[in-house]
Design brief:
The protein is α/β, with parallel strands linked by helices. A six-stranded mixed β-sheet has the order 6-7-8-3-9-10, sandwiched between helices. Strands 2-1-4-5 form a four-stranded antiparallel β-sheet. β1 and β2 form a beta hairpin. The longest helix is centred in the middle third of the chain and has 16 residues.
Length: 305
């Protein structure tokens, strides 16, 4: 893609015999929010670490802002903000000083960093905590502080690795609002998330990753239409014969069917009208298809450790 902010072509990441990313390709446009969905171990964080130039690419080509991650890592790092999964805040410093010191890593002297730091704290409703020590903050406040810290250098590209993990619903809504605002201000966002609603709300486009590969790519609405259809029927029963009859009935009208545990899932793809189906002695649930349906269809319903 011409003028892509991030361009990956056949990118591979291996840790010895373990291959975490298996030859994936994608492009990210300026000012869009691009998401990476996938279960644990899918390769999402490894990919973000390569984009952030903290982990070398094993094979393939990866460009950020028109620069190769192999040849220009320092220039790339200077132009991105990173929100890692882990807490990397300095407990010995105040909330404000965490941001001011961080800005120094990007060449901004402390007297020039205070203004942007306070603006970032205000954006995430932490200005009244500026003088507090980090260990006096709640877990949700620390998460918001990590995002605020990434903004101090006013980067055009922001990498967010599970940005709202551990946040309560109110704090998550605040972060979503602020990220949408940043996108409107011209910041390009790349995020990994386990929250399907978060991906649906924030992402212009996304890829679904599984075992180091991309198994689906598109807008949230296009992915839902392609892999789940308009509606989903769920039939829950611990009785094997009830589930078997539900499967037979769904298949008879052309629905795609998956069975997991005590639940039969029927997907209304290709114009199949699930609402017309009547099941004797069973009260099924009929609901709109969503991104979680796509996620589970592409990556499997079994828990993988």
């Amino acid at each position: 893609m011409k003028d892509a902010v991030v361009q990956a072509t056949d990118v591979v990441k291996a840790y010895g015999d373990l291959v975490a990313v298996r030859g994936i390709s994608f492009s990210v446009c300026s000012c869009e929010c691009f998401g990476f969905l996938g279960p644990n171990g899918a390769g999402k964080s490894s990919l973000l670490r390569m984009i952030g130039c903290v982990s070398p690419v094993t094979a393939g080509d990866l460009w950020v802002n028109g620069l190769s991650v192999r040849e220009h890592p320092r220039a790339i790092k200077a132009a991105i903000g990173v929100v890692p999964q882990e807490d990397t805040l300095d407990d010995d410093l105040s909330v404000l000083d965490n941001l001011v010191v961080y800005a120094g890593y990007f060449g901004t002297p402390s007297h020039k960093a205070r203004g942007p730091a306070l603006d970032a704290l205000e954006l995430f409703q932490l200005a009244d905590r500026a003088r507090n020590k980090v260990d006096e903050l709640s877990g949700g406040m620390k998460r918001r502080l990590l995002i605020a810290r990434a903004l101090v250098g006013q980067p055009p590209l922001l990498l967010l690795d599970e940005p709202t993990t551990g946040l309560d619903p109110q704090a998550r809504q605040l972060v979503w609002q602020r990220l949408r605002y940043l996108k409107e201000q011209g910041v390009t966002l790349l995020l990994t998330t386990h929250y399907m609603e978060e991906a649906a709300v924030l992402c212009d486009r996304l890829v679904v990753m599984h075992e180091g590969r991309i198994v689906g790519e598109g807008t949230p609405s296009a992915l839902i239409a392609k892999y789940a259809g308009e509606t989903v029927m769920e039939v829950r029963s611990f009785e094997t014969d009830v589930r078997a009859k539900a499967v037979e009935a769904l298949l008879s009208i052309g629905a795609e069917v998956e069975e997991a545990g005590d639940t039969v899932h029927g997907f209304g793809l290709n114009g199949v009208d699930l609402g017309s189906l009547e099941l004797e002695g069973v009260r099924p649930t009929l609901r709109p298809a969503n991104l979680e349906d796509v996620f589970l269809r592409l990556t499997g319903r079994a828990l993988v450790e």
